């Protein structure tokens, strides 16, 4: 049994804690909002950490509330007045840039502390902050930092010109003595030496199969038999009533558990993608059920097939072949969320037939409840953007043999990748409402590999581009904040379409994506002129149903006009050189103030990110 955690202030702020950090921690602990505001005037201060205990101001503000009373049945179950004060402090800290998932010496994030103490309101604040941070990170994928204007040489000079830090240092420096600045004590998180699994290393590692598990050479559990029930439920969600004759794609063979279940349903097509050479060898061994004789047993040639290689390459081949599936399952290993997101945003809409279903093993952050809760929301938002209708199905996970490191099911396994109790195992099931009218630029790229390097001028100028889809993107702050950020620099900005608030601190801004006249599944054009865009509004409404958003037709037409202008520019060989336009931010900027927007200095990181992604701002 781990020792109980001492949540007292004395235990959390160590004697080694520097005065600056100590001040911030005390103000956070005391919920002194006005005092704290003065101290956390830049983002590094909001995340200062005690060098020994790892306490951050967020931990302190939450921990100071102590454990909640027994639930009273009231709305704010078991919460007291202290939480209200803490909430303001926590909000202020997030506003000042506090990091939502720093761990302390007990390996607890602020949310873990809130959860353990039964402080649901504070826990939820941390989840919301996590969602905002992860959505922004996803938006910034591919973000290139803008140069500060100086080159490296200048930077070196600046370093050399720096003043010695203290008077003693200065004296020593004058004496020619080498000054070695004492390194300030820095907190080292408990899992700092944990080796992260990377896809590249995993795919080169040796694997060991036994009856109950598949391990890599670092003894990480790649697949384990205890997941069998999750696989069974996923199959039931993907193929209701166990209907035979379905077209199935499974990505990641592992122990072949889910493929065994799919095979029992006598599909009309069963494709498997697997990248690891050792797994492929296992599949082709004489005792495997999925070897050459299985491939031959399909209703027609190629109907039952194992594709050897990374899915990132194989799906392009499947798209070229025009494959369509009724059910797609995704469960790989050693890949981060960006890969899963890329798969369901860029490829699922093109590979899945109408009314088809997609599911994946939802192990995202499953070793820490708050990460699991954050990612569940993030995935849901990204899925909505990809035109997927999301349904969650809770699965009970029997934790009897999963509760102790190295014991029960985990015997011989390096670390537990699942620690959530029986109620939190979620199984994801998505249904696409109607992919026939929806495409994102990413999908278009996926359909035709050579487009991914083409610039937007080419895409805008393409002959078969005849309609435009407006999609929403989650913004970190209300759109007004974005506008204010620019206004502060003397520019008048209006976002043309703002289509509603998702939550108090998140809004959706309409952005443009382009679709060509062919739909995602490669079927024939459904419309041939942009007038039909108006008729598409119904579908747009459909897509936004989950957020109760209605797009205003006049806004669509207005945006269309702006875009038409851009197309003309492109044809004249003008300056429209958007490299990666899956996000185009349209703003109104007064002409006499429209100096190069790249020069804008702003602390609004979101704006920087949007500008970097948009490449250029179209001026109306
Ligand atoms: C967790 S296991 C899948 C388990 C499977 N659902 C089952 O029921 O047994 C993950 C599998 O994905 C494979 N994999 C990992 N990265 C891949 C990639 N990029 N492309 C294809 N397969 C991959 C791994 O080699 C491994 O066999």
TrEMBL record:
Keywords: Methyltransferase, S-adenosyl-L-methionine, Transferase. Residues 146-176 are annotated as: Disordered. Residues 150-168 have a biased composition (Acidic residues). InterPro entries: Ankyrin_rpt-contain_sf (IPR036770), RMT2/GAMT_Mtase (IPR051038), RMT2_dom (IPR026480), SAM-dependent_MTases_sf (IPR029063). PROSITE patterns: SAM_RMT2. It comes from the Eukaryota. This is Protein arginine N-methyltransferase 2.
